[in-house]
Amino acid sequence: MEGNTTYPLFLGNQSHTNNTCSRDNVLKTVVFPVLYSCLFLLGLSLNGVAAWVFFRIPSKSHFIIYLKNIVVADVIMTFTFPFKVLSDSNMASTGLRIFVCRVSSVLFYLTMYISILFFGLISIDRCRKTLKPFRGTNAARLARRKLLSGAIWTFLLVLCLPNVILTRKTPPSSYFRCSDLKTAAGLYWHEVVNHVCQVIFWGNLVTVIVCYTLITKELYKSYARAQAHSSGGTICRAPGGASTRKPHQAKRKMNANVFLVLAVFFVCFVPFHFARVPYTMSQTRVVPFDCQLKLFFFQLKESTLFLSSLNSLLDPLIYFFLCQSFRATLFKTLQLPPGSCSRLTGRGSDTDTGSAALKDSSVCA
């Protein structure tokens, strides 16, 4: 558990600290504001397009429902970046810094953990489709997934709302921590939220690892069967005599795309949650740390937090490479020729033949 001298999950802005070891370092006040500014511009563009495209697609599968929720979370997260830029670069007024503590940072962490939960659900869905590729869906199952999505948003909103309401004290000086604005009940509630967020992350980390271990084993079996089937050395040729790619070669490209979810999860969320452990220890009074070590852990935490923010920029890769419905709608909207999609994805076509599990990953069905 992080102590009251830090700015942990849902506590608010983690920038304005009374700790002189980290208040005015260049990384916090210059480098990260520039990076977050770039991230805001790129993220706003990509997620704006993603939201516009996705909400023209009917929610015909569990996968699409989960992706739509991630799009909404990413858009909200992206709009918190300008407030963080102003706050970290010391250009924000006291009122704006209070807003960052009460609202902006709370929304940032809210959307982060919503994304983590839906990444877990996507992993379960991909695992189910790989192990049981011919199990379809129906209106009742889709309705249950929509209710589950609404329950997740409601639960986390209710969980973090007291952090907004109970952050109402007057700042003691121009240099204040977000914890200085919280009442005693607010500090206690923050500790509760912190524990819940730890459970969310570690539970979903285990879920993702288990699901993709099962997916890997199943895809290896599928690849082994394809290799055995093609061991006779037959070569497919087009009517003109030119050789064509064998079906199992197309499958292998799709196999790699399936692991995009795993890659984004580990790049964006795992480093931050591991870095928080030593950072928390450095900020408590239980274990003494010198100033330089505290600064190092602070910079490590801020660097991994930026990786978590990068999730809003990497998620569109998942939409594009794993969802044919998204690609088809995007290319139709941009009025690009049909061959553009296959050139960008590296596939022969968007209707690749192959196992139902792999095809499902391509079409979001």
Report on the structure:
With 365 residues, this protein is mostly helical. It has a single domain (26-227, 246-363), classed as Rhodopsin 7-helix transmembrane proteins (Rhopdopsin 7-helix transmembrane proteins, Up-down Bundle), CATH 1.20.1070.10. The protein contains 13 helices and no strands. It has helices at 26-54, 62-88, 94-131, 139-165, 184-229, 247-258, 260-268, 270-283, 291-309, 311-322, 324-334, 339-345, 356-363. α3 (94-131) runs antiparallel to α4 (139-165). It is globular, with a radius of gyration of 23 Å. Residues 1-19, 242-250 and 348-362 have low confidence and may be disordered. Residues 345-365 are annotated as: Disordered. One of its GO terms (cellular component) is plasma membrane. Residues 46-319 form the G-protein coupled receptors family 1 profile domain. GO terms for molecular function: G protein-coupled purinergic nucleotide receptor activity.
Please render the helix and strand layout as text.
Elements: H1 26-54, H2 62-88, H3 94-131, H4 139-165, H5 184-229, H6 247-258, H7 260-268, H8 270-283, H9 291-309, H10 311-322, H11 324-334, H12 339-345, H13 356-363
